Amino acid sequence: MDNFKQVIFWAEPNWTAILTATACGTGALMLFLNWLGHEQSWKKIQRAKARRETSLQQAELAVLQFNESHPGTDTSLILSLSLAELSKQLKGGTLTPQAVFHTYMEKTLEVNRRLNCCTEVLLESWDQLEDIGSHKDGLLYGVPVSIKENIGYKGHDSTCGVICKLDLPATGDSVLVEVLKRQGAIPFVKTNVPQSLLSYDCGNPIYGLTLNPHNPQKTPGGSSGGEGALIGGGGSVLGMGSDIGGSIRIPSSFCGICGFKPTANRLSSRGAVSCSRGQKSVLSSFGPMARDVDSLALCMQALLCDHMFRLDPTVPPIPFNQQVYQRSNPLRIGYYENDGYAMPSPSMGRALRETKALLERAGHTLVPFSLPRLSYAMHELVIRGIAGDGCATLLSNLKGGPVDPSLRVQIIPYGLPRTVKKILSILIKPIFPRIGASMESLCGASSVQDLWRQHADVEDYMHEVMAEWRRCELDVLLCPMMGPAYNHNYPGKLTSALSYTTIYNLLNFPAGVVPVSTVTAEDEEELRHYKGNYGDLWDKLYKKAVTGGEGLPVAVQCVALPWQDELCLRFMREVERLFREKKK
Length: 584
Fold this sequence. Notes:
Helix content is 48%, strand content 11%.
């Protein structure tokens, strides 16, 4: 039946056949109505693709015209500058906003042709460019900024890759976009996401599949995968993403860039779109992605301003603490190499050990640390929390159109009746305990009372982890970061590996990613003997997912306590500095 629906969905209408089928009874009528709904979805998709193509063509033309009238623009220099250097030259007048804007637009168009990472060029950015002189005092004056597709921009869709959100353009800018503009930044392109955002792949039926800038056979990660691909490919100097289970950190790791997930609500989410709005167990955060840590810090400094606090009074009015970020005192750093739930790949483990050794040589104190009851936290708090409604909200967002191949396997158990999920859990648990427990957790909460109990359990677990943190007298925490980049379509089969990232959304700890190495031939050889912590189906799939990664980036993750975002960034900068010095 599913195959038949797909044929009907993509086929040209055969009215004779349809009318004949309709005459055969109610079932045929329902089939006809189903076809009609799919036909409307198909037209929506075509309109979205046409809008994207038009914006890309107009951008191409504008770049061509600028290049013809400004043949002396040193694009190589502009693209080589860090955000701090670029900002300095823009403010000093050495570079013009027009030259920088058109240089990055041209590079973005080139990267998009290779990687399919952009959903639409924001043509209004040319209007903003004409008036950019009025924002010369802004910290991001003249800087082109890419934004994730779900971040609201007036007049443009934020679809989250689902059909039901097409043709619903934002009536105003999101708070993030408003503040970026006030600080002189120019949001110029929206970037691709996986269907529904609740995936760390990057494909959807509207805009297609995004590729990894280092290897097109690999995924860029998700859900901020378009951002990771564009920045990793050199098409953007600064981007904005969102993170509910690693959605900033995973693409940053897979694409070899830096990414930062702040404490939830440190930056406003007002005006952004989600497929799981109202879910409160595992919190989402908006944050920056860039080529270096100083760029992340500059972006946070620019956004944490009075204008944001006025536009969204629910955001605590805490400006960026530059003093904490600039400190250089020795740190007491907790670390773990294996969280006990998902065994790291050989390159992940090696990257962690090399980082630990460099930090110790630099005078920092490294202390072993382990997260208490992680299996319980993943099943009863993370999965049961995100699936609190039995996955009903997510599935409702997928109605009315095809499901992307990257998501199909992932959602198979979501739609099963609650009783079936429980029976399957009982049958699977003796053989694959981890998979069986996850299946049972997908049942979600059984009642409002059960949901409130689950929220209380999340609070209790947060305090349990923080008590262990205080017992070890830690400043920050160093832990592995998922990687290297997976082969396409594996993320939907491997939610198990998210334990390294999702736990810090649950705990609401700020966390960031710094690339420190690349996969070696020795890592690949060691991977051949990978067994995992459980030896179950997920461990076997993980081995297949990361195979063939030689040369791909590998990162580590830096973590701090809630609201200590500047300390987390300072730790990230220290890791980055040590590896830069090592390369000299």
